[in-house]
């Protein structure tokens, strides 16, 4: 038995040693931003840290727990001089981090009072391949929208710097959310992108649809009254919020009709059930002819 055990144990010990070495590297919290509904954004810097879009890191805060490591998706872009994560306060550890950062206090928090943070990573995900396609579908469910914050930021930086060499020409973005609690911080990013794209006369570069899946008809009716207003009353975006769930078959057929003969990347960060649906639609809407349209499915489950 020991012959079979010694190899994996050696690799495990090597991984633990690498994580310990990484955890000793200094990480500086440069900014803590409090978003509505107990969501905080930590902006950090670390010497030699390099990331790609959609990657994630493991975070340890010794002030909260000396042993616990928790994974968080990076919400910053590689072009920015810091890396950031968004943390929703939903448990004991995140509550402890919230308090350790002084977010429960009204007065301004001095930088030297912020807790020490250990970071391991970054680690790759399927979202890194988004720039390999001319057309992509990005589907985020709930907090699964976080990797696409990094993607959309990076796309915008690349677009502003050298749009002619950017292979990606069209983004279809879908965000499915049960309630409005997660809208605040991400809607700000979409508003900024929407305004900047219009300034450059390329508003069609990004098409997005936001779906509220947890609302019933009586709740939705109140906002339908304001549907004719210029901006959506929930998100402040020009694109109106939709209610219920998208008809994926219609969405895939519409996109396939607009981009004949293309390889379209489908990227999901969401639950397994939605992954099965999108995978089936990607297969059924791809043509047998190699010159026809093909949907390439990539998933990241939580």
UniProtKB/TrEMBL annotation:
Keywords: Cell membrane, Electron transport, FAD, Flavoprotein, Glycoprotein, Heme, Ion channel, Ion transport, Iron, Isopeptide bond, Membrane, Metal-binding, NADP, Oxidoreductase, Phosphoprotein, Transmembrane, Transmembrane helix, Transport, Ubl conjugation, Voltage-gated channel. GO terms for cellular component: monoatomic ion channel complex; NADPH oxidase complex. Pfam families: FAD_binding_8, NAD_binding_6. Residues 19-129 form the FAD-binding FR-type domain. It catalyses: NADPH + 2 O2 = 2 superoxide + NADP(+) + H(+). It is a multi-pass membrane protein. It comes from the Eukaryota. InterPro entries: Cyt_b245_heavy_chain, FAD-bd_8, FAD-bd_FR_type, Fe_red_NAD-bd_6, FNR_nucleotide-bd, RBOH/FRE, Riboflavin_synthase-like_b-brl. It is found in: Cell membrane. The keyword Nucleotide-binding does not apply. GO terms for biological process: defense response; monoatomic ion transmembrane transport; superoxide anion generation. Its cofactor is FAD. GO terms for molecular function: metal ion binding; superoxide-generating NAD(P)H oxidase activity. Catalytic subunit of the phagocyte NADPH oxidase complex that mediates the transfer of electrons from cytosolic NADPH to O2 to produce the superoxide anion (O2(-)). In the activated complex, electrons are first transferred from NADPH to flavin adenine dinucleotide (FAD) and subsequently transferred via two heme molecules to molecular oxygen, producing superoxide through an outer-sphere reaction. This is NADPH oxidase 2. It comes from Pteruthius melanotis. The lineage of its organism: Eukaryota, Metazoa, Chordata, Craniata, Vertebrata.
């Amino acid at each position: 038995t020991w012959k079979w055990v010694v190899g994996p144990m050696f690799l495990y010990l090597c991984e633990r040693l690498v994580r310990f070495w990484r955890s000793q590297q200094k990480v500086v919290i440069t900014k803590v931003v409090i978003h509505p509904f107990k969501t905080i954004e930590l902006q950090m810097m670390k010497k030699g840290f390099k990331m790609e879009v959609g990657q994630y890191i493991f975070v340890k805060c010794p002030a909260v727990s000396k042993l616990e490591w928790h994974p968080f998706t990076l919400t910053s872009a590689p072009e920015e001089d810091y890396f950031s994560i968004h943390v929703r306060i939903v448990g004991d550890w995140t509550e402890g981090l919230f308090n350790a950062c002084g977010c429960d206090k009204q007065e301004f928090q001095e930088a030297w009072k912020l807790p020490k943070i250990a970071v391991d990573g970054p680690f790759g995900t399927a979202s890194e391949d988004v720039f390999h396609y001319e057309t992509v579908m990005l589907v985020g469910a709930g907090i699964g929208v976080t990797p696409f914050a990094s993607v959309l930021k990076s796309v915008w930086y690349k677009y502003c710097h050298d749009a002619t060499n950017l292979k990606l020409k069209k983004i279809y973005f879908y965000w499915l959310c049960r309630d409005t609690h997660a809208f605040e911080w991400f809607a700000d990013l979409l508003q900024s992108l929407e305004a900047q794209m219009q300034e450059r006369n390329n508003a069609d570069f990004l098409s997005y649809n936001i779906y509220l899946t947890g609302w019933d008809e009586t709740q939705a009716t109140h906002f339908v009254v304001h549907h004719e207003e210029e901006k959506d009353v929930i998100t402040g975006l020009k694109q109106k919020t939709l209610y219920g769930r998208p008809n994926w078959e219609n969405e895939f057929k519409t996109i396939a009709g607009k981009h004949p003969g293309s390889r379209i990347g489908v990227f999901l960060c969401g639950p397994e059930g939605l992954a099965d649906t999108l995978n089936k639609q990607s297969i059924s809407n791809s043509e047998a002819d190699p010159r026809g349209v093909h949907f390439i499915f990539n998933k990241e489950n939580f």
